[in-house]
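Write out the 3D structure for:
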Amino acid sequence: MSEQGIHPTAIIEEGVEIGSGTVIWDGVHIRHGAAIGRDCIIGEKTYIAYDVRIGNLCKINGHVSICAGVEVGDGCLIASHVVFANELYPRATDPEITRLLPSEPTDQTLLTKVGKGVSIGANATIGPGITLGDFCMVGMGAVVTENVPEFGLVVGNPARLIGHVDHGGRQ
């Protein structure tokens, strides 16, 4: 670990902002234009795409994939192997299959907002254009296809609201 808290195997592209006290583990890749707040932990082999915004005091565990168009509020926990999606109609090529489409955000990239204090369980998938309300909780392995209200607790595939939690995550 360097004295800045960035593991030597991490790839941090130009134009990335990293707040003080943030620790970035091995094999992390953070794309240009991303901004990470202060006192965060970015776990091993996590990918953070172009222009993603992550608030202060966030824990992002290992092997997380945060695509372009995602904004994460302060105090969030994103557990291992969480994946965010950002397109409703993803395709590798044009309709004629003559050229590969670019990976950069396009007019079809939908924005996803993760409110403050949100917890997302391991192996969850967050669909495109979703809003996760402040202090909500997403259960392990959930597939979120609709917005989640503040303090809502969702589980399953597709995720469904089964109750509400307090600030500490208890029902």
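The radius of gyration is 16 Å.
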